[in-house]
Each structure stands twice: as C-alpha cells, then as structure tokens.
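Quick one: Saposin B-type domain-containing protein from Panagrolaimus superbus, structure tokens please.
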Amino acid sequence: MKLLAFVIIATILASVICEESEAPPNETCKMCIRFISKMSKYILKHSGDVKRYGGKVCDVLTWGNESLDKKCREMVNEKIEYIVEKVRASKTSEEICHDIYFC
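--- reply ---
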C-alpha cells in the first residue's frame, strides 16, 4: 500500500516537473508561427539587428511563460539566420517552423 502511494506521488511530481520544464508541442508550434509572422514583416523591411528585435518579439509573445520564453530565445539564438534566409525566400511561417522542428 505504501509502495502504491509512493508510485502515485512520484508520478504526479514527475508530470509537474515535466510540465514546468517544457512547453507543450502545440503551444511551441503556435508560438513559432506567431514569432515568424511578426519577424517576417521586420525582416522584409529592415536589415538591422534581427536578433535584438527577435528578443523583443519573444518578450511580447511569451508573456512571462518561462518554458515558451526558453523555446523562443532558442529560436532567436540558434535559428535566426535560417529564419531570415527562408523568410526572404518566401517560405511560410508554418513551413519554417516545421523545418526547424518547432511544429
């Protein structure tokens, strides 16, 4: 009986920890699509500091959601050159997010 209670509590704790550390895939995908949609307008009109603007877009899109903010910053820090290239090549937000494994 004690073992069963321990297993149940451990399972609940593990699911809470996983929820806090990772955004659900569908939320990550939605955030990615919104991010690239907003960035596309900037990328096509400006040649300035895309990373800096991307950080500001992350602030607005993730609105204090720590796990989504982490994924958004990952996109800015690791994928922005690819995103810029594909936006300029007229790929859709959905295609780009799929290409970079956010959807």
